[in-house]
Amino acid sequence: MTVALLGFLAAFVLIFARVPVAVALMSVGTAGIWMTYGAKMALASMALVVKETTLAYTLTVIPLFILMGAAVARGGLAEELYDAARALVGRFRGGLAFATILSCGGFAAVSGSSVATAVTLSRIAVPEMRRRGYSDALATGAVAAGGTLGILIPPSVIMVVYGITTETPIGELFAAGMIPGLLGILGYCLAIAWIVMRRPASAPPGESVPWREVRAALGRVWAVLLLFVVVIGGIYGGLFTPTEAAGIGAACSLLIVASRGDLTLRTLWEIMVSTAEVTAAIFAILIGATVFAEFLNFSGAHEGVLAVVRDAGLPPWAVIAAILGIYLVMGCVLESLSMMLLTVPLFFPIVTGLGFDPVWFGIVVVMAVEIGLITPPLGMNLFVMRTVVRDVPLWTLYRGVAPFVAADVLRLILLAAIPGISLLLPELLFR
Known about the structure:
This protein is mainly α. It has one domain (about 1-430). About 80% of the residues lie in helices and about 0% in strands. The chain is built from 21 helices and no strands. Helix 12 (about 220-235) runs antiparallel to helix 13 (about 240-260). The longest helix is centred in the middle third of the chain and has 35 residues, at about 265-300. The radius of gyration is 22 Å and the shape is globular.
């Protein structure tokens, strides 16, 4: 137990010292096994983890979903989503902010990445909102918050990583994420309505669009709907596995981009390079986290923490509340994927040992790390916004996301208190 605590402390020190997360976790994990069981065991464990991770068939789903998202981002589909959402809800005060949330939700359903969603929509929505007279706080807050939907609305790359790490069915996780994702869209829209009601000057009156143009704009988003139906509908319908769905989704995304005349050799090269860079970064963190998890297993940390929890006599809900509190605090200073891979190997056995559903816990974890994407000072989506609107003060960004963070915290409490919200679709479709 003491060794595990020292390992966690060393990992945090290295991460805060700006050592790459993958390097920090692998170094601490290898060193911990080395000091406990010797060099031979440490090197053998590291080699085995690298081999099993890079050759695992189930992990091919990660680069395939990343490829699908990269193709969609470069195929102009995000612009069509935003135009359709703007035509639909732009007539209301704050309509462009509402449209941003809706288009983020649509883009998230085919990209699987929060950062990709935030990057893509920030370049489209923020300049348009600023040009129309929206406050910087509302414009940047809506995009930063909307981008987080990519981590929850399936297909989600981080949900895939959780499923593979904990051996939880990915199809059930995708099903469990649908209702919380829709609740996220609703919560963000309510946050915008609250902002506009309190500060009418933050958003100008909307512009009415003829229904003929609305129908035309909605008709142009067929590609997004097709991708979502093929990938998610195929999984839910039992037509193919998540890995097969990822391959089919990647192929369909490239065909859609090609059908629009946008798939040049240069574009294809950019898509492949982007996919390779993101995949390499994720796999490096995954390998480092797996080595660190092996170190925790060897140290007996799981059994020790579980014994402490049981001896403390805390009710299960109090344990969950404590875990969520830890995630919310860590989200202020750690990147989402790193945070999940650092903590899940320790928390997952505790939660399942207390009788909680692993699918429900996966959704709760993803929600918690989702909040970390927009939590000051180190929220990843806030850094994305800084690259787009360099002239906006950091305090304005923090003020802009505050109502959305509050909406997320309320949603997290709701999902934690009522597991049936997340488990409704998995129960209907898979159990």
